[in-house]
Specification:
Blueprint: E1 2-11, H1 16-21, H2 23-36, E2 39-44, E3 52-57, E4 60-65, E5 73-83, H3 86-94, E6 103-108
Antiparallel strand pairs: 1-5, 1-6, 2-5, 3-4
Amino acid sequence: MAKYMMLLFIPEGRSHEEAAAETPLWAAYTQELHDAGAWVSGQALQRNETATLLRVRDGETQLTDGPFVEAKEYLGGYYVIEAPDLDAALGWAAKVPNAAYGTVEVRPVMEVEAATSA
């Protein structure tokens, strides 16, 4: 089975109360993934304001606090699932609680062979 990452984008401005009210929906969705054997991993992320961006330019490390650009949505979390194909992964993505008001980006996970030491 292939692995797919679902990146969960949430609109800016949602309140803590709105998020808290959805907790049972997220728990049920995650349990459904587990029950179907599709679950690989997943986590919610702290809000944009907690982000630190790092870039190395000309050997110098540059750090920027908070979101780099103004955005209408922020990355709120992710799931990694196993599915037989993209259509099945998109089926799971359509059930994510934030699909009704946010965006779910689905990408195949690139399988990279581990380098072996000689």
